[in-house]
Design goal:
Number of domains: 1
Order of helices and strands: EEEEEEEEEE
Shape: globular
Oligomer: single chain
Structural class: mainly beta
Largest sheet: 10 strands, antiparallel
Number of helices: 0
């Protein structure tokens, strides 16, 4: 997944598990950072979940990601307290 954040493009691996209308999973990056998603839900091709991203010297920001799955791709908007940004991902 590429998250086009205000701190620059962030590339993360997003592992997702759909169980009915529930969505669980985790984010990880080459830097060794990883975290679980929470409050995840699925409705048809639409999804929503939250994840906390660490920001050096600032703690962390909570992102709420909403979007749509289309085939092997997904895209949407990530909202946080200081604005929003786009993201996209491809199944690998």
């Amino acid at each position: 997944m590429v998250l086009h954040s205000p701190m620059g493009a962030k590339i993360v691996v997003f592992e997702a598990v759909e169980d009915g209308e529930a969505l669980t999973g985790k984010f990880s990056a080459e830097s060794g950072w990883n975290t679980e998603i929470y409050e995840g839900s699925v409705s048809g091709d639409d999804f929503r979940f939250k994840v906390d991203f660490p920001v050096p010297a600032m703690g962390s920001f909570t992102f709420t990601l909403t979007g749509k799955v289309e085939g092997d791709s997904m895209s949407g908007i990530a909202k946080m307290a200081v604005g929003k940004c786009k993201f996209e991902a491809k199944r690998i």
